[in-house]
Amino acid sequence: MVHGAVTIDEYVFNRCRALQNRPAHLAIADLTHDLAVKLLTVAQALAYMHSELSLYHMDIKPGNILVDTSEKPYITDLGFARCRTSYRDDEEVPVGFTYGYAHPFLTNMGKFRAPSTLAKARNRIRARELTPRFDLYSLGRTILALIRLLEIRYGGRVRANYGANYLHLLAALLLDGQNVETMPSPEMRQDFASEVACGVKEDLLRVFHLGACRSLESERVTPSAL
Fold it and tell me: What is the Cα–Cα distance from 143 to 18, expressed in whole angstroms?
């Protein structure tokens, strides 16, 4: 249904290869601008799902964001999605997620079931615990994975680009104050840029997170306003 679709990480890889003959600083600038535009569309789609449908995707990751031949991104694969209004507050809801992109609340409860593939891990939570923060955290991890592709291709030169630093800091702020290196192995950690961006320490990121939460609560800002 998505014509000529490639996953967003494949798209970034292909763009890096297409720009290999351009000076690195120009290629990085083009890539980060292009990526920012696509991520804005993804964020708008999530805002619509959350505010208008009370629908949470629960499995945002590069493999579930497709880009068509006109370079338009789509959020796909709602197999794990949950609609908040379909459950009573105290009802237990089965949830699925991909380890490495899932919020620590889902993975650190001590009882999540990991099948043969970590792309189909399972747990159960109360319906009242379903919130947008799970998708926002996964979006942050997704951005870290995409920035890592740029780091692998261009090394430290990525840090000299404003757009790359902006996206990196944005990703860190999306991690719900959970900015620690949580991957269980060096092999998994090397697939993501650092959760601590631009030298901003974890404690300060948590202060930003707490301040944002208090502001939203006091002003009653809806997810769509974000």
Answer: 21
As for how many domains the chain has, the answer is 1
Residue 117 lies in a domain: no
pTM above 0.90, yes or no: no
Helix crossing, 24-53 with 162-173: angle to 10°? Answer: 30
**Does residue 83 fall inside a structural domain?**
yes
Q: For every one of its 226 residues, what pLDDT tens digit does the chain have, with 9 covering 90 and above?
A: 888 999 999 999 999 999 999 999 999 999 999 999 999 999 999 999 999 999 999 999 999 999 999 999 999 999 999 999 999 999 999 999 998 899 989 887 556 666 656 677 888 999 999 999 999 999 999 999 999 999 999 999 999 999 999 999 999 989 988 877 555 555 556 899 988 887 776 666 666 665 555 554 454 444 443 3
Residue 78 is part of which domain span?
A: 6-90+130-225
* Residue at 116 is within a domain: no
Whole-angstrom Cα Rg for the chain: 18
- Which residue from 160, 135, 5, 142 is spatially nearest to 67, judged by alpha carbons? 5
d(CA 4, CA 45): 20
Report if residue 153 sits inside a domain: yes
Residue 59 φ then ψ, to 5°: -145, 45
